[in-house]
Amino acid sequence: MIAPRDLKRWMSAFLSLAASGEVGEAFARHVDPDSFIHHNQHVRHGRESLIAAMKDSAARRPKRSFTVIMAIEEGDRVMTCSHVQMPDAGVAIAVVHIARFQGDRIVELCDVGHVIAKDSQNEQGMF
Question: Above 90 in pLDDT, residue 87?
Answer without folding.
Answer: no
